Amino acid sequence: VIFKSAVEASKVVAQEIAVLIKSKQVENKFCILGLATGSSPIKVYEELVRMHKEDGLSFHNVVTFNLDEYYPMTKENRQSYHYFMHQHLFNHVDIKPENINIPDGTVVLEELNQYCMNYETKIKNAGGIDFQLLGIGRTGHVGFNEPGSHINSGTRIITLDHITRVDASSDFNGIDNVPKRAITMGVSTILRSKRIVLMAWGQNKATVIKRTIQGEITSEVPATFLQNHSNATFVLDQFAASEL
Ligand code: GLP
């Protein structure tokens, strides 16, 4: 779906999430959201906060699982996705802290495999992700599933692509400060979501969006795996869609 602007598109995406949260409330069920970081979802979070404050949208039945976190990374660090999520969403809505799940960048290396398996189990035990929000990196990554990520991959530690570290360098005051690794949900974790919305804004995403939507399905562009998902939508502004 192509919109004129990211603002307009973000409102539509936030509206879909709000409708889902409310429909689960009517059924007395939890709403399981898979959430993303980066600049792309910021306006969606802004709109959800506005709906909470002005329209009384409650997050009391919302459980969230974030896609990824840098490794190693403390929660207090301003570059952490933990910090990002609290700053943009969690601090401003009535979600219960125990319902927030973000990969923990402080787990010791020897315990990471078990930690990642537990993250998967927690998603499964929650009933799976109802709605997964995604951005896309210039390498074609979703979460931090860099080129080479297998369709069957689960939550794990990965090595960040050089391009991804270049793109993150402004947040970290230089590439040398960007972590070399991250914890990410896997491609299969993402593909098991009942509904997926990938958002991309701006001209610098146009090439990867063309490869993702019109290119062959390949682990070299992990976002292409979404082509086979039965309920995935790409929400684009006119600039990100300009090479289609
Ligand atoms: C990071 C995140 C991704 C995100 C990507 C794009 O790499 N791990 O989940 O999609 O950035 O970021 P932006 O939305 O700022 O372009």
From TrEMBL:
Location of the active site: 68 (proton acceptor), 141 (proton acceptor), 146 (for ring-opening step)
Domain spans labelled Glucosamine/galactosamine-6-phosphate isomerase: 7-233
Protein name: Glucosamine-6-phosphate deaminase
Similarity-based family: Belongs to the glucosamine/galactosamine-6-phosphate isomerase family. NagB subfamily.
Shown residues within the full chain: 26 to 269 of 641
Physiological role: Catalyzes the reversible isomerization-deamination of glucosamine 6-phosphate (GlcN6P) to form fructose 6-phosphate (Fru6P) and ammonium ion.
Coiled-coil portions: none
